[in-house]
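Throughout this chapter, every protein is written as a compact record of paired, labelled lines. An example of such a record is reproduced below:
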Amino acid sequence: MKLISGYNGAGRYKCLEDVLPEKRAELSLMYCGWESCVRASQRRRDLKDSYVLGFVRSGIGSLEMDGEVYHLEPGDVLLALPGREIWYGTEKWKPWTYMWIGFSGICAEAVLASAGFSGVKPVRKVRCAPQIGMYIERILEAYQTSDQDRLKRNGMLLLIFSELIQDYEQHSDRPGPAWRSPGAVYVKEAVRYIDLHYNQKVQIRELADYVGVNRSYLASSFQRTLGCSPRAYLIRVRMEKAREMLAGTDMQISVVAAAVGYTDPLAFSKIFKQSYGMSPRTYRKVAGREDEG
């Protein structure tokens, strides 16, 4: 029986790490786990390389991200974005038990939006925590590298998001989920196109023609559905792919730039720094790739 190298199932801490992501999958699990703290922990600094959702089961804690501090209690779920520095910890008078899932995928951002999460709104309360906890436990039980366990893990990940989307639709104060808004069907098609062709020259006017609407209608539909413009979404996809290449390969920065659709490495570096607050070279060092390509 071959186990995933990052599996730990001891005591008050249980996790599954080093899961190989599915290439070009809509959603793919990378790691998950839970921890039950018995005393206050020092605030921890972290820089995530994927999307992460954290679920507070009991106790009290706090999260700091992008200069904002969020006080967390049971039922709260937080979203940590790739490449964003976070600080988190629990309170000494009421240590927390929390769970987490890390994931990637070409549809990750769209699914998060459907579940009520975004960089602007990274924390919300849910009522489906018991079901989420059950699915995470089932993921942790599927710790072999076999195809059977791999499918179980990703199946549980899909069920987690199904619960989160249903919870958002049933309990949100909004009149309806963003993906049901007028024009959302065009946004979905545009998102699929961008996710598949981000490494090519993408003109927003041509993208609008491709999905069958004019440019202004596509822009307003993007804003209403995802809270950003088509151009901003394209940049986010490109920067996420670049971040993965910088952290996971020794490719030269100019090669990374070309691989995500930029013919000018200087323009790429400028946009990367605007997105993550550091240059590609610095990010590679922070991510553990000291040798510059």
